[in-house]
């Protein structure tokens, strides 16, 4: 998986970044794809893996979270959305598995910011930072070294830029374009680069 998804959870925000290229074999098909889906107004879902599976699965999750909110008039918390997503992956694993690995981050008024790691085998883990794809071999050491619980949004974005620089230097699959999104109490926004 050449796709890159990186997430960092701060005290009151989650910053998520993903490369914008979609490649197959040795050919880059698209150079401006957003691999981070907005879920409701306070959750982000970053996907890495097979393009068709990622697109279909993220749409499934987005539509079902919206359906739940319309039926009950109560949006799911980030924790509940992560467990719902994990349950969908686990059910599909026995029939026709989705080949996608995910980072789900969000901000809830009562729980604060949270980030969850989900893989195609339906494992779920709450993290302070994480990465999906081959790029994780390079960026996790940077995140281990430089992550602090008191990071500001600006510090987290600067840390992501350090990760991007390392990928450009060491990773043989060049990912020149990245998108960065932030979710906090004010909702979701894209960080201009």
Written description of the protein model:
The radius of gyration is 16 Å and the shape is globular. The chain has a single domain, classed as 4-Layer Sandwich (Glutamine Phosphoribosylpyrophosphate, subunit 1, domain 1), CATH 3.60.20.10. The chain is of the alpha+beta class. The longest helix is centred in the first third of the chain and has 22 residues. The strands form 3 sheets. The chain has a 5-stranded antiparallel β-sheet with strand order 10-1-2-11-12, with helices on one face. Strands 5-6-7-8-9 form a 5-stranded antiparallel β-sheet, covered by helices on one side. A two-stranded antiparallel ribbon has the order 3-4. 35% of the residues lie in helices and 34% in strands. The chain has 4 helices and 12 strands. A hairpin with a 2-residue loop joins strand 3 and strand 4.
Output the radius of gyration. Answer: 16 Å
Order of helices and strands: EEEEEEHHEEEEHHEE
User: Which ranges are low-confidence, i.e. pLDDT below 50, for 5 or more consecutive residues?
Assistant: none
What is the overall pLDDT average?
91
Looking at the overall shape, the CATH architecture is: 4-Layer Sandwich
CATH superfamily: Aminohydrolase, N-terminal nucleophile (Ntn) domain
Biggest sheet statistics: 5 strands, antiparallel
CATH class group: Alpha Beta
Into which percentage range does the β-strand content fall?
25-35%
Ends apart, CA distance between termini:
25 Å
Subcellular location: Cytoplasm; Nucleus
Family: Belongs to the peptidase T1B family.
GO cellular component, one term: nucleus
InterPro entries: Ntn_hydrolases_N, Proteasome_beta2, Proteasome_bsu_CS, Proteasome_sua/b, Proteasome_suB-type
């Amino acid at each position: 998986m050449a796709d890159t998804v990186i997430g960092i959870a701060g005290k009151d925000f989650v910053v998520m970044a993903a490369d914008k290229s979609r490649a197959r074999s040795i050919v880059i098909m698209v150079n401006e794809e957003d691999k981070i889906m907005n879920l409701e107004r306070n959750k982000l879902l970053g996907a890495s893996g097979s393009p068709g599976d990622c697109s279909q699965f993220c749409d499934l999750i987005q539509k079902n979270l919206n359906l739940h909110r319309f039926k009950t008039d109560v949006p799911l918390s980030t924790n509940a959305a992560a467990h719902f997503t994990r349950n969908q992956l686990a059910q599909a694993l026995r029939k026709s598995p989705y080949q996608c690995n995910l980072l789900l981050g969000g901000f809830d008024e009562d729980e604060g910011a949270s980030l969850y790691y989900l893989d195609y085998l339906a494992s779920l883990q709450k993290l302070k930072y994480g990465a999906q794809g081959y790029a994780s071999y390079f960026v996790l050491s940077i995140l281990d070294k430089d992550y602090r619980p008191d990071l500001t949004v600006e510090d987290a974005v600067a840390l992501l830029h350090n990760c991007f620089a390392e990928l450009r230097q060491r990773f043989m699959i060049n990912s020149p374009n990245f998108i960065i999104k932030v979710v906090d109490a004010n909702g979701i926004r894209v960080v201009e680069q």
